[in-house]
Structure formats: C-alpha cells, structure tokens
Amino acid sequence: MEYEVVIGLEIHLELQTQSKLFCSCSTSFGKEPNTNCCPVCLGLPGSLPVFNRKAIELAVTAALALSSEVQLSSRFDRKNYHYPDLPKAYQVSQYEKPVALGGCLKLEIDNEPKLVNLERVHLEEEAGKLIHSGVSILGSDYSLVDYNRAGIPLLEIVTKPDLCSGREARLFLEELRMMLLYSGASDCKMEEGSLRCDANISLRPRGSEVLGTKAEVKNMNSFRAVEMALNYEAERQRQILVSGGSIIQQTCHWDEEEKITIPLRSKEGSSDYRYFPEPDLLPLLLEEKEIRKLKAGLPESPAERRLRLREEYGLGKREVSLFTANRSLGDYFEKVGLKYKDYGNLARWIQGDYLYQLRETGKSEDALEPDKFVELLVLLDNGDINRSVAKELLAEMMISGESPSRLVSEKGLKQISGQDQLLPLVEKVIAENPDAVNNYLSGKEKALKFLMGKVMAQSGGRADPGEVNKLLKNKIVE
Amino acid sequence: MAIDFSKDVEHVAKLARLELTTEEKEKMAGQLSDILDTARRIQELNTDAVEPTSHVIEFPATMRDDLVGESLTLNRVLQNAPMREKDFFRVPGIAKNGNDEQ
Amino acid sequence: MKLYQKTVFELSRLMSSREVSSVEVTQSFLDRIEEVEPFVRAFITHTPAMALETASLVDRKRSNGEKLQPLAGVPLAIKDNISTEGLRTTCASKILENYIPPYDATVVEIIKKTGMPLLGKTNMDEFAMGSSTENSAFFTTRNPWDLEKVPGGSSGGSAVAVSTGMAPLALGSDTGGSIRQPASFCGLYGLRPTYGRISRYGLIAFASSLDQIGPFAMNPADCAMLLGLLAGHDPRDSTSYPEKAPDYLSAMENRNDKLKIGILKHNSENGFDPEVKDAVNRMAGLLEKEGFTIDQVELPRTDYGLGAYYLIAPSEASSNLGRYDGVRYGYNGGGDNLENMFSRTRGAGFGPEVKRRIMIGTYALSAGYYDAYYLKAMKVRTLIRQDYKEAFKKFDLIIGPATPTPAFRIGEKADDPLEMYLSDVCNITDALAGVPSLSAPAGMHSNGTPLGLQLTAPPFCEGRLFNVANYIYRNRDPQLPERPAVRFPEGGAE
Ligand SMILES: [Mg+2]
Ligand SMILES: [Zn+2]
Q1: pLDDT digits (tens, 9 = 90+) for A349-369
Q2: What is the CATH number of the domain that holds B19?
Q3: Nearest Cα residue to A90 out of C208, C137, B53
Q4: pTM score of the predicted model
Q5: Distance CA C231, CA C475 (A)
Q6: CA-nearest residue of chain C to A139?
Q7: In this predicted structure, what is the pLDDT of residue C108?
Q8: Does the first or last residue of chain B, that is N or C, have fewer Cβ atoms within 10 Å of its Cβ?
Q9: Nearest-by-Cβ selection for A53 from B54, B65, B101
Q10: Interhelix angle A327-337/A370-381, nearest 10 degrees
Q11: Interchain CB distance below 8 Å, B42 and C332
Q12: Count of pairs with CB atoms under 8 A, one residue in B, one in C
C-alpha cells in the first residue's frame, strides 16, 4: 500500500518587545541567569499580570500578515501543569478564544502553488530555561533553573495538517519566517530560541480522508533539522505500517547527533491541563479601528515584494528571491535603482561583486553610498574604466568610501582605448610572442587569451579589453 | 445518587501533586463526596442560555506600555530558594518513568 | 480613657493638633498587645520596633511642619497573607513559614507612604481557607468575648486585634466572608469592598476572582477613612477599578433618609439561630425609625451560592496554589526526583483544609468534569448576579444577618468541613456578585458573644454602606459593651 505523509506544525515565536508580556522585566537575550526577574515573572505569591500593549499589537500585526482573522474579543486561560520552568505552575495562554482564527500562507514548491492553511494564532507566555546536569533531561541527577525567559511574549501559530513532507515543512517555515520578519513581529532567531517548531506527523493510505495516529516531534533546532526529523519519522512510521504494525501516539525528541527520533513517553492518559479562564486578566477586547490601523501599517509582504521586483524591475527568479530573502540588500538595490536604470546590470553587480565585498568586509547592506555606486557603473558604461578596474575600485570604495571618479584620476586608471594608444602595445606583444601567434593561427583559441593577458598587463590593466581583442585578431590575420 | 469520590482520590492527588497518606485518602474520599454532593445541587438550576461569569468586572483591562522597568536583584530573586546553586535555582532530576507532563 | 480606646478619628485629631505623638499612640497599642495577646493570640509576627520607628519618623515630619495624611501615625495590623517586603509573610501555612517577600503589596506601599506604623501580621486560616482561624498551621486565635469560642475566619487575627484594642485598624481579606464573618463574631465593623476597589497586588491569592482586601474598624467612620486611603486604581492589578475613590467620610455624613432598604428573605433558614433573626429585625426597626423605607427583598437563586462558591473558589485555589512546589521559595519536602519532591513538598507543606480544597478544585477542573462543575458554577454565578441587579433596581441597600449563628466553640466544626462551610452562607453570594458588603455589630446573643448585621450595596456604593451603618452606630445600645471586657483567666488561656 502506498502511504501519504500528513504534517501539521506548531510554531512558537518570541515577539519583539522590550519588556515581558505581563511585567516590565527586559526581554534581552544572554543576560546573567535570573537577573531579568521580578515578582510577576517569578510567580511570587500575590503578584499579578498586566498586559503589555505592544505585545498585543505585535500579535495582531503577525496575525494580519498571515491573513488570520483577528477576534474582537479573545480571552486568556490558565494551562495548569507542574514543571520547574513554569513559575506559577500554569502557563497563561489562549485556549478557547484565541486572538486570531484561520489564515493561510501561499507557497511555491517546484513551480506549483501550494496553500497551507492555519488553524489559529494565539498569544501566551514563555517558560524559563532548564540546564541539565547530564546531557539530557533523562538521567540527569539535577537541573538548574533560570527564569530570565519566563514571561517573554510568545506567539503560537498552529497550521492545519496541510503539509506532505519534511521538505514542504521546511519551505513553509522559511516562508513563514520571512513573513514574520517582514511584519516586524519577531526577529525569528532560531539559534536564540525565538522561533521554535514542533510537528504532528502521521501517515495514511494515499487517498484516505481519515487521519492516522500521530506522533509529536519536538526539539528540532533548525529548519534543516525539521526537514530531516520529519523525513526520518515518516520513514519510521512507514516501515512500521508496511510490516503490519501500528503507530502509537507519542512524543518524540529529535536527536541531532544520531539523526533519529527518540520516543519520549506515551501520550495516553497523560496531560490534563485543567484549562480555565485566567481570573487575573480581563478579556482582551480590540476595536475595529485599532485593527484597521495596524493593518494599514503593515509593511509590504514578501509575496508582494516578489511580484513588484519582477514587474517593476524585470528581475529574474534568482535575483527576486535573493532581494526578498535578504531584505536590506533588496532595499539597497532599489535605492541605487532610483538613479540607475539598467536594472539587470545593477542586479548583477549587487548580487555579485557587491555581495562578495559585503561578506569580505562584514559591512551592512547599505555600506556604500548609492550615488557612488551609480557613479562607478556610469564610468564603466561610458568606457571610462574597464570591468576589472571597476571591480578593484568597488573593493577600495567599500573601505575608503572615496568617489570612484576621484580614484580614477588620482591613480590614473582611466581606460586606454583607441588605435593610437593600443596598437603599439598589440604590435609589441605579437612581436615578442611568435609561438602563441602560431598556435592561434593553427586554431588554438586559448592562445588569443594568453596574448590578451599580455596586452592588458602592458597597459597596467587599463586597456579596453574588447578593443584589444579586435585589434589582436586583425593584426595576427594581417 | 450520591457521589463516590474514593475512585478519584488517587488520580486527582497525582494531578495536584499531593502526597497523601492512606488515612488522608480515606478521610478525604468521604469528605469530598459530601462536599461535592452539596455543590452538585447547582445542577437543579437551568442554565441553558446562560453565559458563564469569569469576571464580575465591567470595565476594560488595564494595559501597560512596553517599557523596561527595574528587575529584582539576584540576591532578592534567590533569597527564598530552598536549593540554590550559584545563580540558579536547583531541582532534582526527573524520574525515568515518572514524568507525564510538559 | 486610654489612647488605645479612642477612635481613629479622635487619634488623628489629637496627633494633628500635636496633643499626643504617634510614638505615644503606638506605644499604647503595643502595651495593650502585651496585656491581651497571650490570651487571644491574634498575631503571627509582632513588629514593635518597626512600628515605633515609623511612629517617630511621622512625629519628626509633623514637627517639621510637613503636611500629613489624616491617618499618618495611626498604627494598624495586617493579615499575614498580604506581602510585606523583608517581613515574613506566611499565610499561616507551613509551606510559607519562612517566606520573606522581596516586595510590598500595593496596600502596604500606601500604608508605608502614609506613615502608618505596622504593629504586626495577624493570624488566619491557612491561605484564608476557613471560618474559624483554627486552620492556621501555627495556633488558634481565640474569641475575646469567650475564649472557648472561635473568632471566626479566615481573618480572625485581624478582627480580634481590633476588637480588643490591640490595633485601632486592621486589614483582612474576604473571599467568601473572611472579613464579615469574623467581624460579626467579634463585634466590630468589617468591610468587603467592591471587587476591584482595592488593589489585590501583593495579596497572596486564594481565589482570584473573589479575593478582596478590606478594613476592620470599631466604627463606620474609621472604616471609611481606611477604605478611602486604600481604594483607587493600581496599574499593577488588571482587575483594579480605573476610577478614583470618593471621599467616603463626607459621603457618610450626608443624610440619605429616602434610601430604600430591602431586608433579605432567606428561602431556607435551616441552621439559623432565632436570635440572629431578631437582631436583624431590631436593626430594621431602628432604621425605619430613622426614616428609611424597609421592605422584603428576595434573591431567589442565592440558595445555590454555596454550591457555586465551593466549586469556583477551590478551582481557582487549586491553580493559584500550584506554585508552592519547593523550587523558588517556601518549604521543600525533599525527594530524590522532581515528581516526589513536588508531591512531598505539597503533601507535607499544606494543611488538611487546603489539601481538601486543592483536591476539589483539581477535580472540578479536570477533563470530563469541567462542564458539569466549574462551568456550571460560573453560569450559576451569572444568575446570582442577575438577582442582585434586579434587587438593586428596587432597593438601594440590602440587609440581612452577617452569620447564621454567633461564634461557635473551638473544635466544634473542626472535623466537619461542610458544617464549617455553612457558617459563611450569608456572605458568599455578595462575593460571587462582586458587590460591597459590610458587617456591623447588631447586639449580643444570649451566649454573651456579638451578632452582626450585613449591609450590601450595589457595586462601588460603599459610601451608602457607611452612611446607613452610621445610623446603627449612633443608635447603639449604651448598655452593651463595645469591646470585650478584659477578664481573662488567671495564668493565661492555654
Ligand atoms: Mg503553546
Ligand atoms: Zn518580571
């Protein structure tokens, strides 16, 4: 029997606020343990939560960006369970009435459109961090608790089971991450734990409508890990089914070292979270006016940007995707493009030499003044400098910020062109390299390159290569 | 029909993380059955079209601006910790088969 | 007349005219504590040094000509479930026996800013769960009118402190009667304000949707002064009422003769002492003579209040008390793994009544039972609120007994939780509805302990309660003692 894989994701991301969801402690990452804590986020007896307005705005913004329907009235509930990273023994979360319902994300996978629907978007608080004495939770003699993270606002996004493979899950996450980065709701740093993903995965006979028994996969710490873990888990389940076994509902941990999923515990008869409405917080009431305002303030989405880059600038797929994924590089492209209309050439320069220079220098995407970039390209277009000089100049401009025209005149880099100047060089090179000339005449194209190199070297790299090429050919044939 | 809580005592005590002695469990089973019997009288009231009240308050929730305020000093955070190691709270490890949450 | 016998109003006047100092006033109460406390045991923690320090600071400020609040220099006692920075706050529980909060409750902040000397933290039922103060993990407080009887609870220590003159004012908390019931048993004024009127920030939660801090005092004016000081918006409590508090004292002075008062008709008066009913009728007669209109009022569904309350309060409590797990603060019961550390800490750290409520609450919220218990109770709460709304369309105020019986013997109900719960039956529905409610002395029972009248007003109409209570206060029987006589047994109570 052929099986198809059904995957739904639960994504948690930290919202980009300065202070925590219910108290004014800082959310900054990497602070000394237990220093971003107060009576509220430590759950000290008698402390009470108060909404951070910004966290709510960011949650609504993210929901709007994902076309999820923002609810005018939502509610916070307590999810009760005992764990040392949970200071109040309950997590304030949204259960029955989340801040937004539904929504979707459009992907393009192998040139095919793919729609992934969302179940809901809700707001909740982050837990603290446990540091285990051993390598993992199990088998550790003791653990240490740091509550710096406790109470940071989290957005939970739950998808419908619309994904069919580890790869689809990864592509979805990449697109989702970009959407949320664009919306400004989160910095989505997986390495700092500000974006995390758990997955529910099951198999069913192809064509069946009924969902199979699922496993929950946790501890996937990168998009690549998500892809590998889900592919591994799908294969594990397939083998069980093929050999006539059945899947038990359980939670698995992805083991990054061994590249396998490890069943953690049986889910059966376990969690009873005893949800009930949080009495310390009143319902969250939003006004249409506020929502409209946040919607109007939404920045361009990645999809809108892709469309615009394609239509406005006529860019190709690769460039479009680069300038969308690397938003500030794309912004820079557009800024230079205001004064330089050969967008194709510009895009090539930016994704080629400019990007290379950015990596070399570690500078930010807008390191070079756009006007200077334009100046450089115009010098090249007008034949005032040749391409290799232009590359050299770019490298130098990145460091000194000097104007390219000034560098050209200071260093005498102006291109040498015209028979008057070039012919003597060409003739000299032909005279000095009879072997190469003969080789070329006997059909070896490579020999011409060699001769070109000689002429360029004679000119100090400044000769117009096109012209040199033409002159060489003419002279040899003569 | 009276409620018999005795079958639930064990399970509920586990959920609530309460270690109870056998004597406590027995006593509790009887007392809680009586209490629930009384409480259950509310079933007599018809509440079909009634919305639940979780708050008696009729004004909007207080909100705060996203400003960082002062946190407690590390000493104050840890001053009541029953078990402390360096700047952390310390807890024993999880039993190999005990955990069923998180 | 000694200083401790004077009203707060009078003490405030004497201090602002500089006839007496706050140190003298405070010392008078401290002396009284030495005299009475060994017999009644109202305090878990005594803070005489702190009190005198605050008092002398206030005196210095006053002699420097600083403008001070009327309550500056007036000492008070605080229930031990209200957080005090650097000062042990136990909730009368073994689990918090050595807990020292690193912060002040909002009310404590106000009290400190005002310069009210803190005399100590008072005894209570553990986590405010109880009606007799017998559930304290440390000791039982005794009713000063009869040392063999309970003072009521859970704020028993605060009620006793004020009624014996150990403190002119005290703070308690009322979740389902914990201020009004002990006020009634001890013969003083105890107010449960409207839910949201006083900040709960720093009040250690029992049942969050019901808990309110409130004052105990010997007369309505003193009570109004303390409410006026503490009521107001607190940005740290999301459920705190955004409006400023009115001047309750002047509201109290305004005559309101045309008010319509409903006298509550109880559907069932099972277990009600006949003298209680007489006392209520006597008070109604008194008010009628003063020009108020009196008629019967019914709150038909309040009979179900007890059932709803004993599901809602324990449910919230089971969640609020989850945090006592031996990790961050409080008692730790040991154990070699996480699970048994949690269970041992909680099993050994909580007393029997707290464990019972955690069990009921956990059960009522658990999968499969939520709809039938918790959700149903919340719907009943809606119906009870509707009853009040209806009643307040016709009446400006509702009166009834504050307790079904006078104070009972220590130990009498200790082994019968259900009987104990019934002693709050008059107080619970006001709490469920979130309305303000005041217990006022209404004469004596033939057994020699006080009886109380409960006055209930619409939300945020505390001024009306003081106004009407003041008629009762002014017309009190001069034959009856205001305070219990200090005729304690030779050699101590225990
Ligand atoms: Mg979640
Ligand atoms: Zn905090």
Answers
A1: 999 999 999 999 999 888 899
A2: 1.10.20.60
A3: C208
A4: 0.91
A5: 28
A6: C337
A7: 98
A8: N
A9: B65
A10: 60
A11: no
A12: 186
